[in-house]
Design brief:
mainly alpha; two-stranded antiparallel sheet; two-stranded antiparallel ribbon; 48% helix; disordered N terminus; globular; 319 residues
Amino acid sequence: PTRVVPPSEIAPRKVLDDGAMDANPRASCTDMCPAEERDKRERLDDIARFEMAQAGNRGLTDVNLAVKKFTRFVENDIPASSVRTIRALYRTMDHLATLMDATSTHCGTPVGMYDIHKFLWDRYRSVRQDLLLQSAPPQHVAPMVEEMVRFQLMAEYELCEVDGRGGRDDESGDDEKEVDGEAAPPDTEAFNSHLNVEQIMKCFTTLQEMYRLYRSRLSEIDRDTTMSGENEMLAFILLLNIDTHGKYKHNPMNTMSLLRQMPHAASHSADVRFARRVYQANLRSDYVTFFRCVESAPYVAACILHLYFQPMRLKAFRM
């Protein structure tokens, strides 16, 4: 059985400790879950399977297992003790990453990618909320949100055929149907691609704002500098806008606007050049080049391209 590795055993990620890690008056919680929430959820038997200290016991967790849930707040009413510090959020992200390996059993019950995605869906939103509540600087926000995007894009492919497998996870505690005007994952056994892509797009909005904010603080001579994951993320945005998929309609104007606003360094990066090549292949219905690109694509980019397999094959049959 897969064991959840406590944060104390995880090799610390290399991050820039710029004084913002713990010194924000809007955030003072140093655990992955505030003590008040942790105690409340134990009393209410609201502990998710990935947080259980004992198999099957929904009323017992541990400081190294419990992760703060996403909750609607009135911003002015949020105490600093309920908002995690940046250092605590990094620990949270490291811990959540260990759960991606829990693909056989966890706490004595079978789990799969569907269960992991449903749990991380909620906890990632909570991390993003805490980052924005304390106006965390771009160099800390961007790496965490980029990690969320990679997971959600991978899930888009891995769960594309889920229509009831994996079982209903009534232990997740994720029973909200709408949060801050956004749809929450339905309490059903099916994976909802539309809602997953919706969250990806919201992450992209956050990232683009962080990239702009980062450059606005640079000197004029360094304004073309990109953040470490920016080229990859901009390429992902282009790939998601190649054509219509699901309920998302292709808008060429959005693509042109994105390309015009890109820093020169990003537009000439290998990631963005690859995305533009795929985009052009789709415009020309060049299925040979498209599938050759798929063969050479990095894994996460290939997960996006899988969205277009069926329409590209139809184009090939009609030629």
